[in-house]
Structures are given as C-alpha cells and as structure tokens.
Design goal:
Blueprint: H1 2-32, H2 35-68, E1 83-85, H3 93-100, H4 114-127, H5 131-154, H6 161-179, E2 182-186, E3 193-197, H7 198-211, H8 222-235, H9 245-248
Parallel strand pairs: 1-3
Antiparallel strand pairs: 2-3
Length: 275
C-alpha cells in the first residue's frame, strides 16, 4: 500500500511538471513567434545527441564488466548444515528437505487467523513511526484490513498441490516430534535448525542457569525500574506527547517463555546467510 501511495504522489508530481512545461512552452512560443520552432528542434536534437552519448558509454561499460566477470570466483567454504539432527528419529527425504529450508521459510498456506496476526504486527510497526505519521498510516492500514476481511469472506481459497504436500509433510514432522518428545530449535550460530529431545534441551538450560555466574536478587526490582521509567517518560514532555504516554507503559511485566538457541554448532566455520 505504501508503494501505491508513492506512485500516486509521483504521478501527481509528473502532472504538475507537465502543466508547468506546457505553460512555459506557450509563453516562449508567444514571445519568439515562428523562431520558436527552430529553437525547439535544435534543443531536441542536442538532447537526443547527449542521450545517445550517455547510453553508448553505459553500454560499453556494461559490456566490459560482463566480460571481466564472466568467470565466477571459486570459494571453498564449508557452511553450517541447515538441519542438525541430534536424535534417532528417522525423517524421510521430503521431510528433511522441508527442514533444510530453515525456520525462516514461510509455508504457502495461510493460517486460520492470519488477518488478526497481520493487524497486530501492523499495530506494532505503526507504534515505531513518528507520532505525526501514525494517524494517517493507522487509517490506511484499517481500511486495507477491512478490505481483506471482505475479500476473505467472499471467496473460497484453494490450496495448490505444493501447498497441500508441504502441509502434509509439516504435520508428519510435528507428529514425529510429539511422539518422540523432541523439539526444533535454532542454533546459536548461523541459521541452522537443531532437532533434539526436550529433556536434553531442558538439561542444557538448567546447566546454563545453575552453572552460570549469576547474582541472585533478594527482592523483585521490576516495580522500582518501572517507576523510574515512568518518571523519565513524564519528564519528556516535548518528545513524547500526552496521548502517546499510555503506549509506552508496560503493565504487569513478566518474564517471557521464549526458548533460546541451542549451542550445537561447530566453531571455525563461516556463517551462512539466509536467502
């Protein structure tokens, strides 16, 4: 939607420039009379000559770069494996192919409440914009989400053969993980996907907590930090508007239940960028 709005703005700007050019053309034609035709043809000829020279120079440069870079450099890099299996679970080739795509791979089929998730993600993104732009973007997002709801209710979605196959493969992987009490986690280095038992993961987390050098607090300091944060927000009267202060508060903060990455990747191996 943002690209569409930018295109409308550029087309509007182009229309204003064309009107201004037309007005200038009439003024110059009225001032110089029939000599304006000779001047206009001379200007067009000079512009076309300059454009041909520029394009010819760019063509020679592109041809030279293409010839120099015809042979790709050979790089013997051993990247991290996409899927690291630390269990005895047997996965088929199709299941391993889906696991090797990584955790960032997006399945073709949409979830049941994908519009609600989209609305929540859009709300979070809007809160990161400057306060002066939030109302306009919020109005545009609400209008687009309403249109998505209408389109989603009117038409029936059909899955392709690839989407059905990926859904079936993902369900088989999920059933095997539940049956063997295993899980999928992200490695601490690279973009590898680690498959390990839940008990092993719990044991690693406990070892990290109890064997780590942590300082235990006698009382919860969250309330004190929250109070200091609110005092600082109240002092920022120019930067944070009065109506936006509510969005900066975090009521009843608590620890998250996110699962951290597994430390199972090898050292001295380069990172592999995701595509």
């Amino acid at each position: 939607m943002r690209i569409e709005e930018e295109l409308k703005f550029l087309y509007k700007k182009k229309e204003i420039l064309n009107r201004e050019l037309y007005r200038r053309h009439l003024e110059v034609a009225q001032e110089y009379g029939w000599w304006w035709n000779v001047i206009h043809d001379s200007l067009l000829q000079k512009i076309n000559t300059e454009m041909e020279r520029k394009y010819k120079s760019m063509g020679v440069k592109i041809k030279r770069l293409t010839q120099n870079q015809a042979q790709k450099p050979k790089a013997d890099n051993n990247f991290y494996p996409k899927a690291v299996k630390n269990t005895s679970i047997n996965f088929s080739d199709e299941e391993m192919e889906l696991l090797n795509k990584g955790l960032k791979y997006n399945l073709g089929s949409k979830q049941k409440r994908w519009i609600n998730n989209l609305a929540m993600e859009a709300k979070t993104a809007i809160m990161m914009l400057p306060p002066g732009q939030q109302d306009y973007i919020r109005h545009q997002v609400a209008k687009n989400i309403k249109r998505l709801y209408q389109q989603h209710g009117q038409r029936t979605t059909y899955k392709s053969t690839q989407e059905k196959r990926q859904d079936k493969t993902a369900k088989l992987i999920k059933d095997k993980l539940i049956k063997n009490k295993a899980m999928v986690a992200k490695a601490d280095k690279g973009n590898s996907t680690v498959i390990l038992y839940s008990d092993d993961y719990t044991q690693k987390v406990n070892d990290f907590i109890f064997c780590g050098n942590f300082t235990t607090a006698n009382a919860c300091i969250t309330k004190n930090l929250q109070r200091e944060l609110r005092d600082k927000i109240n002092e920022c009267r120019i930067i944070i508007q009065k109506d936006d202060k509510v969005e900066t508060y975090e009521y009843k903060p608590h620890s998250t239940n996110h699962e951290g990455p597994d430390k199972s990747s090898q050292r001295r191996r380069p990172h592999q960028t995701s595509r």
